[in-house]
Amino acid sequence: MNYINIFSFLISLALSYIGIPMILNMLLKNNTVSPNYKGENIPLSMGLSFVFIQIISLSIILLITGENIDYTVYYLFSFSLMGFVGLLDDLIGDKDVKGFKGHIKSFFRGELTTGGIKAGVGFFVALIISIILSVNIIEVLINTLLIALFTNLINLLDLRPGRSIKVFIMISLVMLITRGVKDYNFFFYSFYGILVIYFPLDLKAKAMMGDVGSNVLGITLGIYCAYTHNLASKIIYLILLIIIHILAERLSFSKIIDNNKILKFIDNLGR
């Protein structure tokens, strides 16, 4: 771990220690709450803190090091845009329309949903990043699907306290091992600094990160993978993502987890 990773972690940790309690109080004061899976009203859209802190932290890193500026700016642009559409979905989203198919059907009926906006913007962002990054049409296709599906993955799993963050941490650690390029590791280390402060709130069901949080966690995984992995590794990740999304349309992941002792133990850990 080089000094950039350590520094990005410490900056985010310090900013989170100050900023996350302030954002939590702001949401409570303005009654920005929503019922969790137990029906308890808790602060919604705490993922807003992820957006502010990650942007500030990585901007400081860029100012100090001057390294990888272009691709980090592309990431932060995509990150911010997905955070915005996630916040829109949190605040005015139609909860009666469920799943990717539901939003597509609504679109073709002439009804625009915030979920449809999120899907469209997610695909657009993934496509733009992929065109910039890729050298041929095959790579464009693989990178686009990889980023788009990773962006949606965390949202699919954000149904119980701490679950999606555990998945983010596990996948990011695997990616740090399987990556071929190490220039962008600070994307993750900066997020780890944020999660040190935020994760206990999510685990204890004292706050929800909302779609704004799951979107930015997911797109961070997708863009990091696209930036740092070779084609063979990307194809493996993509196949797994496609399988997971197909299963998500047919099965309940919560039921699968509850019926498996090991998965249930991991899911309940820390609550």
Automatic annotation (TrEMBL):
Domain of life (superkingdom): Bacteria
Stored InterPro entries: Glycosyl_transferase_4
Record-level GO cellular component terms: plasma membrane
Protein's UniProt keywords contain Protein biosynthesis: no
Protein's membrane topology: Multi-pass membrane protein
Pfam families: Glycos_transf_4
Transmembrane segments: 6-28, 48-66, 72-92, 112-134, 187-205, 212-229
Protein known as: UDP-N-acetylmuramyl pentapeptide phosphotransferase/UDP-N-acetylglucosamine-1-phosphate transferase
Organism from which the protein derives: [Clostridium] ultunense Esp
